[in-house]
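Below is just one:
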Amino acid sequence: MPTPFFADLVRELAQEGGTGPLTPTGAVPGHRRFSGVVPPGVSFHYAIAGIAHPAEWEVGTGRIGGDGRLLRDAVAASSAGGAAVDFAVGLKTIALTVGADWFAARDMETAALAAAVAGLSGQLTSVHDALAARQPISTSHDSASGGEASDAVTVRRGADWVNIPLSALAFRDAGGRYPLDGALGAAAGSAAAPSISFAADADTGFWQPAADNIGFVSGGLERMRLSATGHLGIGSMPGAPNARLHIVSGGEIQRLETTTARGGGACYQGFYDPSGAKGFCGYSAIDDGFDIWNSLNHQIRFGTNGTYRWAISSAGGFYPVADNAYTIGGGVNRVSEIYAVNGTINTSDARDKTWRGAPTEAELRAARRIAAELGFYQWNDAIAAKGADGARMHFGVRAQAVWAIMADEGLIEPLAEGVDPGSAYAFLCWDKWDAVEPVTATDEVRDGEGNLIAPVRAAQAGRPAGSRFGVRVDQLALFLIAAQDARIAALEAAA
């Protein structure tokens, strides 16, 4: 039977568990690694001793496979009653050792040697005295579950031996912790296998994605990163974070939640500079009102598409940022009422106008005919909501009748089916809009870890395409006044 391979001071650490192959991860201080010492495929005696789980141990014969892992071929003895131990994940040592058959072969040589040495008792006594002062290498000493910083370990250094204090190594103390007496240097690792992880959760911990970066990993995925510039990224970052706080997510990005009941719990974001508060937005501490607050003597601005659109001045005025650029409401987004102390101020500066002059005879005829069309009416929506007796009476014109009169006088093109109306007269208005598809209500969607992917979505009614006629009442009224004045002037001239 071939003699198993042997080499001294071969011992490595391992983390894996189970009854199968184990992967050596690095030499124990003062020892050598299997790679480079033990040829792959050559049988040798091994001993596995649990550190994180001291009750687990196993000795037997095995080989180093082509992938560098220990193949446990035959178990000689173990903490599992001689069967292969199902090791728990955690720190353990794998050592190349000698077996009982090796010792038996050496016993015969030792007996022969003993006879030769018997006559050298005097010399052996002096050797014994010298060895008594040395640290013995033996497994017969009392076992200890932990170490002390003052303990020493004898290791080979070149051709000599040196004692290293236990404080220079990672060791378990009496409290079950592993104190370090210096900085910890670890490999960069990866998100799938972080360099610093937990014994029972090897894919959760820390790794180094780039120089001067720290990656925080859970479940084998990077969840957060602190960059060299101090930027913190949260989520699946495509690279380094680009801001002090850079969050990437397909669902809810941020949630602020107060522990106080509604009606009195402040929940807001505050903005400060070295001089103090600049403003905040969120829910008030005294009621359920949502506040947008600028504490400084300046505007609050609103913008879309990269452009400022509207602003609230420091004095409380609401105005468009660009002059004569935006409307309030639209043909299908009308404002129901405007409450004001004074009427609107319309620009009438002569410097802004190209003057044409008084109305023509055709325009005056149209105005007189439009005046004859004035009458009372009720809104159909008001009748549907309040009934015919409850809906209020309004006074005015029907826009289509005004269009028809203007066209009959040859002032504009007549209305035609399928043709968009057009007019040079600003008191005649027509707007159209496209259809809007309805939105179906949906519940919130969360992933397996409870993260919000899509929030609750309320149902939204669709809207068919349509159009609406209208008039600018102020300009139409002035048009009718001009016609009335011309009529009175003609009557006075004929009297």
Remarks:
- The chain has four domains: 11-98, 196-247, 267-350, 361-494.
- The radius of gyration is 46 Å.
